[in-house]
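Input chain follows. Return structure tokens only.
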Amino acid sequence: MIRDIVGVIGNLGLETVGCLKLNCEGGEFEILQRLLDTDMIEYIDNLSVQFHNLHHASETRMNALIEAIGESHKLTYHTPFVW
């Protein structure tokens, strides 16, 4: 079953999320975009994301997400696709 990240956070009744770690084999793109689109990103203090290079647009999408997240969060560590 796939659940909406915004709904999951809402159902848990959390006011903030201290750290959200994403390593979901390409699903990170959609999850992060959903958090940005709904402003739920503001409720997350720290993000740890492993981006996956799945197709020719992965790097462009990753850079766009990093830039958008940078409006509310500070990038403290980044390494390009590892695997």
